[in-house]
Amino acid sequence: MKTIMMPAILFLIAFGFINILISNHQVVQAQSVEMKEQHQEDPTLLYQNHDINKQITLKEKKGVSRFLKTPVQAHTSSEKGQAIESKKAYKKEITVEATAYTAYCEGCSGITRTGINLLENPNLKVIAVDPNVIPLGTKVYIEGYGTAVAGDIGSAIKGNRIDIYMKNKEDALDYGRRTIKIKIIS
């Protein structure tokens, strides 16, 4: 009797395991479709996740994809260079040395470390940071620039230094090097 029951039990266990795998795959596919639909509604919303099953490809060209734990919102500027969120409470204020950069330079791809395409979205507010000081995905407020997302890194950006994205080269050069205070929002 035991020899007859054993294959039946193994079959039921295997069948249950396969159903769980199929169910999990369907959930991941549904989440992926939902994230892609949200990205189409708002192309500045980037989905990043360290779970390989939840990877979202931001650009179909050459497989550019990034992983983050939470959605990151890149910000566009208002007419006066201030983002809408400028009056929100902030977690802390830090003093940094700031310079500016542009996506329109020789050898620049225009795509940030987190996958933001600055050539296709020149009005986004993005800064390059040292991720050990300001984690990628952090929202910051910069007086005169507005609310931006820490979405890039740079080889010279170490410690309390940031590089502010400007949509044209002249503005980036005119910005120079400044010591400023920035507010960490999230």
Automatic annotation (TrEMBL):
- Domain spans labelled 3D: 125-185
Offer one Pfam family short name for this entry.
3D
Sorted UniProt keywords:
Signal
Known InterPro entries for this protein? Answer: 3D_dom, Resuscitation_pf_RpfB, RlpA-like_sf
GO BP terms in the entry = peptidoglycan turnover
Q: Which GO terms describe its cellular component?
A: outer membrane
One function term, GO molecular function aspect: hydrolase activity, hydrolyzing O-glycosyl compounds
Q: Which protein are we looking at?
A: 3D domain-containing protein
What is the source species?
Pontibacillus chungwhensis BH030062
